[in-house]
Amino acid sequence: MEVHAISAVQKPLSAIARKGSARMKRAALFLLSLAALGFCLTSELNAQYLNFSFHTDARNGAKIYKAGCVSCHGTNGKGAPQTLSAFQRPDSFPDFTRCDQTTAELNSAYKDVIMNGGPSRGFSQIMPSFKEALTQQEIDDVIAYIRTFCRNPHWPRGELNLPRAIVTEKAYPEDEVVLTTAVNASGTPGNESHIIHEQRFGVKNQIEIDVPVLFQDQNHTWYGGVGDVTLGAKRVMFSSLNSGSILSLFGGFLLPTGNRSRGFGSGTTSIETFAAFDQLFRTNTFIQLQGGAELPFRTEVAPQSLFFNSAIGQSFAANHGLGRLWSPMCEFVATHDLVNHASTDWDVIPEMQVTISRRQHVRGNLGFRIPVTNTQGRSKQVVFYLLWDWQDGKLTEGW
Q1: Cα separations in angstroms, 312 against 22, 135, 146, 236
Q2: pLDDT tens readout for residues 77-86
Q3: How large is the greatest C-alpha to C-alpha distance in the chain, in angstroms?
Q4: Are 45-147 and 157-392 in the same CATH fold?
Q5: Region 258-273 average pLDDT
């Protein structure tokens, strides 16, 4: 009898193990596919972000700039005097000495405008194309010289502003408005949207407000309302373009603005804190890691919890790294309540981000969130967002 009982237990356990092994194999194959994609696209992708392979000469760039750029952009990078200009400056006319304007821009954005003219990124047509006048190396040298107008080396470079994942938060301080939505694809009908405003201030800081809006079908009656609002601040602790690394810390409050009886809020103020680390590799493969905690003031109302989010992805673009940017990613999301006998909820989110506007300041992301553990009562969800990087221009500009 004991042998039969053990055998009966082993059969379902072995079946679960086989299913888990199959999931792990599929996940491993996905990650290997991303890595292979990165290595296959190395030659094109290097133009998009870090440009490790470029050996630039800022001194040669200075000669080219003084010969062909000063008539519009001035010797000091602030722009030539208006009395000497033959055109009316558009609102998007750059001041290369302003670190808040220049450090957020990628080398590829500068290169696209220099090669193909302002309209290639939705800027003014007064910026002509220089692809017939300058070689690729000369353009790279000019960009290297333009970078010297920002005298403060502590501003994190825009190359470290990685594609935004749906759940995992970035380490880079952004100027963005994001509308993100999750729609239940199974189980109880419902959806949850977040209106997120992120604003950079100073060299390394960002403030954030996150307003969730929820709609749920509860016993065949739809209810809606605002959830718990998040107010927080993020600060960059370390960033290096040479290594492709950036680390930030975040601290904030979740305010009990949601209706707890409807399941829209926790019913207590909570502290949220996390660390975010992003790593960009030479092939434009990237990894984002985020780990933190939510600590309610009243633990008898809501439990303390830990969370760990991670994303791995790959960016590639058409037109030798200067065109529309595609970023397939896969996220692994974990939450663990600090109560007795609680187990960890794991989700996986395959997704794709793509730039929509020519200026690449409007982006979209579409994914599918799949519960992997503790699936009872947890719905699969279609998740997506629209992102507007308002520092790069108005929502109506850059198309």
Answers
A1: 20, 35, 32, 21
A2: 998 887 766 6
A3: 99
A4: no
A5: 95
The burial class, CB within 10 Å (0-12 / 13-18 / 19+), for 387 is buried
| Tens-digit pLDDT profile for residues 127-185 | 999 999 999 999 999 999 999 999 999 999 999 999 999 999 999 999 999 999 999 99
Terminal-to-terminal C-alpha distance of the chain:
74
Q: Which residues pair with 274 in a beta bridge?
A: 250, 292
pLDDT at 26: 53
Nearest to 359 by CA among 175, 113, 97, 176: 113
Domain edges within the chain: 45-147, 157-392
- Identify the H or E element spanning 142: helix 136-147
Please state which CATH number belongs to domain 157-392: 2.40.160.40
Mean pLDDT of the chain: 88
The arrangement of secondary structure in 45-147, i.e. its CATH architecture, is: Orthogonal Bundle (1.10)
Distant-in-sequence, close-in-space partners of 158: CB < 8 Å, separation ≥ 6: 103, 104, 105, 106, 109
Question: 97 to each of 80, 139, 148, how far by Cα in Å?
Answer: 13, 19, 8
Confidence (pTM): 0.83
Is the model's pLDDT at 10 over the cut of 50?
A: no
